Amino acid sequence: MDKILEGLVSSSHPLPLKRVIVRKVVESAEHWLDKAQCEAMFDLTTRLILEGQDPFQRQVGHQVLEAYARYHRPEFESFFNKTFVLSLLQQGYHSLDRKDVAILDYIHNGLKLIISCPSVLDLFSLLQVEVLRIVCERPEPQLCARLSDLLTDFVQCIPKGKLSITFCQQLVRTIGHFQCVSTQEKELREYVARVTKVSNLLQNIWKAEPATLLPSLQEVFASISSTDASFEPSVTLASLVQHIPLQMITVLIRSLTTDPNVKDASMTQALCRMIDWLSWPLAQHVDTWVIALLKGLAAVQKFTILIDVTLLKIELVFNRLSFPLVRPGALAVLSHMLLSFQHSPEAFHLIVPRVVNLVHSFKSDGLPSSTSFLVQLTELVHCMMYHYSGFPDLYEPILEAIKGFPKPTEEKIKLILSQSAWTSQSNSLASCLSRLSGKSETGKTGLINLGNTCYMNSVIQALFMATEFRRQVLSLNLNGCNSLMKKLQHLFAFLAHTQREAYAPRIFFDASRPPWFTPRSQQDCSEYLRFLLDRLHEEEKILKVQYSHKLSESLGCSEISLQEVASKATLLTQTSCPSDGEKTLIEKMFGGKLRTHICCLNCRSTSQKVEAFTDLSLAFCPSSSMENLSFQDPVSSPNAQASVSGPSEEPLVYNQAIAAFVCDSVINEGTIDSLPEELHCTENTSVPNESSKILVNNGESQKPGETTLSVTDLLNYFLAPEILTGDNQYYCENCASLQNAEKTMQITEEPEYLILTLLRFSYDQKYHVRRKILDNVSLPLILELPVKRTTSLTSLSESWSIDVDFTDISENLAKKLKPSGTEEACCPKLVPYLLSSVVVHSGISSESGHYYSYARNITGTESSYQMCHHQSETLNIASSQSHLLGKGSPTAVIEQDLENKEMSKEWFLFNDSRVTFTSFQSVQKITSRFPKDTAYVLLYKKQNSTNGLSGNNTPSGLWVNGDPPLQKELMDAVTKDNKLYLQEQELNARARALQAASASCSFRPNGFDDNDPPGSCGPTGGGGGGGFNTVGRLVF
């Protein structure tokens, strides 16, 4: 048979015919053959595999060898023995060199064929010695990558005991010898892939045998600190950095910087080469290690090394900013090097000639990532020019190039410089490790920033701290379901029970990111929150319809299509007055109802519509005077006439969207005769008068002496009547024409959790950009929401909307509303809410900045509820119609009492990976202390007479801290990850012992959360420390 096969593969027959005959040969492997015939076939197929002249011959060799080895395993075991394998590895095969990758591939496949045979153990022992010899010979990247493939599949071939340490050290040296001379993209990609395979092999060995880690790292340092001019270690050593546990950073850096055996020349060489690693495209945490080493050297006052390295490498680091893959790390290192080099302008002046060209190049591409980068670079340059003033000839071109970007305040520049100086690094070495603090103090888990994902992290933490919502999510039975709610439940379970200081929500981020959100770029957290709640709501509706369909099928009903499922889900949405059992979890937790009432000012006919909402968008009041305004209630005074401005005047339009986004337009004044009783303004009116109105400014904070608005004021303005006139005129069906009309909105059903979004981003019509409104808004601890519950809903048409979008009022809203002749009796009531969480935006535009959140646990405790409930009962409901939410409300007394008695419990500051204790005073003062840090999204929890929802009657004995017990699937996942975390900690017990004193370091330099703005985003994704961490203020 071997003669037939040999003649066939070398013949000139057509290829299809050859394939047919080869298939017959493979099928004949099932038949009995004597040992000599088998050996002849194995020898032929080996020759075809290793010396085949074309791919067809090598393919035939693999197919036939596998078939005959499977059916004649004893004969193949005898053929593929130690002697044969050893000769392949040491002598090669005929004309094939022993270092050819085909040799390793053949042995790799042979091991797969005899893995179940006893003789494979002898081969494992042989290979443990041979792979160490191969590595000591410094194989090329291709051969080393194939060897890594073999050892990854057959870990039994990895040397054991002391030889494993030697093997790892030699493998590190081999990586240090890798070189790639090609400049072609394909070859470069292959080279990077091969290096990655080798570094992954080392990572696996370090995990399996922790004793090999430190010797390997010592070998890395020995390679990069070598002063031998004849050898330059490869930059591919950077691929190993991402596999070094960050928990070891402090002890390793301290050991290096204090070791008397490490000479200054060696340390300088090592640091320079680590900076060169910034060019390796797939290396992670290189910037973290470089900055940590720079801080460590400053802590032991080795300033000579720092000066030499900075002057030698600052231009190279600046040039790396041109490459997008390595730009974030390069900017982090550049910022630290420049800001810490404060004794001389020499380092800064080395890069000054290059700044203008770099700024122009990034301006021209117009990418959001480039704009964010320029904001960070501009802030850094302003700090340096401030510190080294007196060079106008050098700085004028730079100032002209960056004049369109924000300039930091003098106070901020001084703070950044003082934190970044070398002399301030003596006690801040641990600040480069954000994820090592927090959990042990607060018991809360942070969320790792995955690259501009602080908008998601802040929202998720706020939702997680919404106690009732968290409990409902964790108690859902979602086994066998791969929905977004299941992923949220998984994330909540880890936040509640993981032992890690910070959790990486990669799976949830990929599933919940809106399709139009660009990865790794800053986004609007409010937009993300709306999208998330909408997805969860719509998903649950469809699942409910599918579940009912399964029940109907079990009863013998006919099949329905997917389109019918979707249509039924839509019908479920449009059904008015769904019962609590029919509501989705999102509706139960965040859903409220808002009634819009429009009265034609010509014929006095009215129309109304009730819509569902999950959050209210509160606009800032316009800057024009409103003190002479009064409004008329179209329901209570149907015969009254409104006073409308003459043809020469433009009537006043109160439009929440216009107030928020059209800030530079002039709004003329108009008058209306009377105010509805429930909206009548007292001396503490919610409609801004001369003493309370604010200026909606463009990127500037309030001037001293201006009155600070409260959330109550914005809510009043939201619910205040609005005159539809001009382009917003209402189409009256009774008049059959566009008419001036009055629109009022009333909340008819309150949500369990009230979400309020402050519309802080205004549209600058002159420059066509969105700017941030930096006005301070006071946050009441207790908010009383006016709710007018409807007793008759006969003629109301409802539709579910995840958010009441008030930016579309430029369209004719009235055309969407159908007249309703019914008038319903309303029962006004002030519903008390307690502040649960605050999402803060730090920055001056919606495209940049940083998000973090303050939050606390609110469980509807009896004491806090009774205080609110008792006060609400003492209010005169009838007289409440005379004001909406006046500042003189007794709520202020309750709030002060709660604050004084510390009824608000503990507050937490969630800043990506960091979680620290804070206080409500810090929440209140954040904008006054840091003008660019402003409250953006607020969550208020309704205070009920009973704790939680009616469905939460699970025996408390089964609930840990009030949360339901985890289902088995979730508990298994958390337990498995916790075990993995403990194994990781065992990699270096000494590192954890030395860091015990610093692991509980405060986020603030002085240990208090009021010293620095929490919104600092640095390379570690959560702020902290000096240098770039405070400069950037953009998520990295």
UniProtKB/TrEMBL annotation:
<protein>
    <submittedName>
        <fullName>Ubiquitin carboxyl-terminal hydrolase 38-like</fullName>
    </submittedName>
</protein>
<dbReference type="Pfam" id="PF21246">
    <property type="entry name" value="Usp38-like_N"/>
</dbReference>
<dbReference type="GO" id="GO:0016579">
    <property type="term" value="P:protein deubiquitination"/>
</dbReference>
<dbReference type="GO" id="GO:0006511">
    <property type="term" value="P:ubiquitin-dependent protein catabolic process"/>
</dbReference>
<feature type="domain" description="USP">
    <location>
        <begin position="445"/>
        <end position="943"/>
    </location>
</feature>
<dbReference type="InterPro" id="IPR028889">
    <property type="entry name" value="USP"/>
</dbReference>
<dbReference type="InterPro" id="IPR049407">
    <property type="entry name" value="Usp38-like_N"/>
</dbReference>
<dbReference type="InterPro" id="IPR050164">
    <property type="entry name" value="Peptidase_C19"/>
</dbReference>
<dbReference type="InterPro" id="IPR038765">
    <property type="entry name" value="Papain-like_cys_pep_sf"/>
</dbReference>
<dbReference type="GO" id="GO:0005829">
    <property type="term" value="C:cytosol"/>
</dbReference>
<dbReference type="GO" id="GO:0004843">
    <property type="term" value="F:cysteine-type deubiquitinase activity"/>
</dbReference>
<dbReference type="InterPro" id="IPR001394">
    <property type="entry name" value="Peptidase_C19_UCH"/>
</dbReference>
<dbReference type="Pfam" id="PF00443">
    <property type="entry name" value="UCH"/>
</dbReference>
<dbReference type="GO" id="GO:0005634">
    <property type="term" value="C:nucleus"/>
</dbReference>
<dbReference type="InterPro" id="IPR018200">
    <property type="entry name" value="USP_CS"/>
</dbReference>
<dbReference type="InterPro" id="IPR033840">
    <property type="entry name" value="USP38"/>
</dbReference>
